[in-house]
Design goal:
By secondary structure, this protein is α+β, with helices and mostly antiparallel strands. It is built from twelve helices and 19 strands. Strands 1, 2, 8, 9, 10, 11, 17 and 18 form an eight-stranded mixed β-sheet that branches. The chain binds arabino-flavin-adenine dinucleotide and P-hydroxybenzoic acid (PHB). The site of P-hydroxybenzoic acid has 9 residues, from loops.
Length: 399
């Protein structure tokens, strides 16, 4: 636990939030000689066990390797060359390297990325305070914004040259920006995901995304002995209404293939219902206040983009702060929002496409269902359509 007395009262970059965005940014800045402080409202155990993303793109893996945070990832991750789509009793594999000139993805949970970055930062990184809840940011329209937070029972302040909101969708930094300066774009989906962890070997070598009249299902994994699975459920569903047997029966039904296929069962160790939304806040900067990751944008997890978008934002931001320190130039910082938003909107579209193609909206018409099946048939029969999905899933080089 960082002692309050040792926390500085001023820094160059104040980072709010120790999720993947805040931690990776702090690591990249530390390596570039830019001083920063990370303030996280929750305790270390909570942050490290929060079940979220599972797929890393090449760009995210490159960023973690560039700052010495990928040793365990390179030892323990599963490298995947494809995913399987299932619909109407059929299966079709999307071959990433064949369709993208060699790209692939890494299966390595967000919990593990966060653990690795926290361990490095506590060992030789910038100050990182847990249970340090930021209440507000003052001076957002000045060149000396101040972060106000409570830590170990004491009200504290951190004077910054810049404040970066890495505090997620419900964070406080976005609220420090005058609302008339921001534009928000949002879509809330008429369904959620029931996400489960199970102590059983995955029943497929690669991820399986399934469209079915009963609703969407996803088979993912955390290791050769732990499965991560998701079921589309109505919004507001209570996980307590889903005993293990019901979950396995429903997954069986939605992942079924005409030629037969068996799903291995095992004890379910965690269950949670995750709502789904698309959201973008523009611009991602107001003066000395910047937003990164979920603080600026949210995608439905069907495209496996959330964590990767957060990483891509902070790679751009760290380069901008390094340039500012090296030459005094603010060009990259001035371009930050536009540079990120081009990639963000591409990922928003892809995540929306994967979600609306694979999920069955309870109110949807039979016509809509036939359009979905036609789209899936097109992906299975056209190299161009399959390549479009593969390029977006495995990660595009945009900016
Ligand atoms: P995060 O939300 O991870 O981190 C924000 C941090 O800020 C948190 O630790 C929070 O405690 C802290 N914070 C908030 N307010 C604060 C305050 N006032 N003071 C100090 N600290 C504060 N993406 C995928 O690709 N695949 C998935 O399957 C997937 N599943 C998800 C499930 C859930 C329930 C959620 C919410 C997201 C999921 N995502 C998934 C997306 C997720 O991975 C995010 O994209 C990723 O966590 C983004 O990282 P950050 O931007 O760092 O935000
Ligand atoms: C996961 O493993 O948690 C995961 C994988 C792919 C997705 C969403 C979640 O699209």
């Amino acid at each position: 636990m960082t002692d309050t007395a040792t926390l500085p009262e001023r820094t160059t970059v104040g980072i709010v939030g120790a999720g993947p965005a805040g931690l990776l940014l702090a690591r990249l800045l530390h390596r570039a000689g830019v001083d920063c402080v990370v303030l996280e409202s929750r305790d270390r155990a909570y942050v490290e066990q929060r079940q979220r993303a599972g797929i890393l793109e090449q760009g995210t893996v490159d960023a973690l390797r560039s700052c010495g945070a990928a040793d365990r990832l390179d030892r323990e991750s599963l490298v995947h060359d494809g995913v399987e789509l299932r619909w109407d009793g059929r299966a079709h594999r999307i071959d990433f390297p064949a369709l993208t000139g060699g790209r692939r993805v890494w299966v390595y949970a967000q919990t593990e990325v966060v653990k690795d970055l926290i361990a490095l930062q506590l060992a030789d990184g910038a100050p990182l305070a847990f249970e340090a809840e930021v209440s507000r940011v003052s001076g957002a329209d000045t060149d000396r914004p101040v972060v106000h937070y409570r830590h170990l029972g004491r009200e504290r302040t951190l004077a910054c040259d810049y404040v970066v909101g890495c505090d997620g969708f419900h964070g406080v930094v976005r609220r420090a920006i005058p609302q008339q300066e921001l534009r928000s774009y949002e879509r809330v989906y008429p369904y959620s995901w029931l996400g489960v962890l199970a102590d059983v070997a995955p029943s497929s070598e690669e991820l399986v995304y399934a469209h079915s009249p009963r609703g969407f299902a996803l088979l993912s994994m955390r290791s050769p002995t732990v499965s991560r699975l998701y079921l589309q459920v109505p919004n507001g569903e209570d996980p307590a209404d889903w005993p293990d047997g019901r979950i396995w029966d429903e997954l069986d039904a939605r992942l079924a293939l005409d030629g037969g296929w068996s799903l291995k069962r095992g004890p379910i160790t965690s269950k949670a219902v995750l709502p789904m939304r698309s959201h973008v806040t523009e611009p991602m900067r107001f003066g000395r206040i910047l937003l990164a990751g979920d603080a600026a944008h949210i995608v439905p997890p069907t495209g496996a983009k959330g964590l990767n978008l957060a990483a891509a934002d902070v790679v751009v931001l760290a380069r901008a702060f390094a340039a500012l320190r090296a030459s005094g130039s603010t060009d990259l910082l001035d371009a930050y929002s536009d540079t990120c938003l081009r990639r963000v909107w591409r990922a928003e579209h892809f995540s929306w496409f994967m979600t609306t193609t694979l999920h069955t909206d309870p109110e949807q018409s039979a016509f809509r269902t036939r359009l979905q099946l036609s789209q899936l048939d097109r992906i299975a029969s056209s190299r161009h359509a399959a390549a479009e999905l593969a390029e977006n899933y495995a990660g595009l080089d945009i900016g």
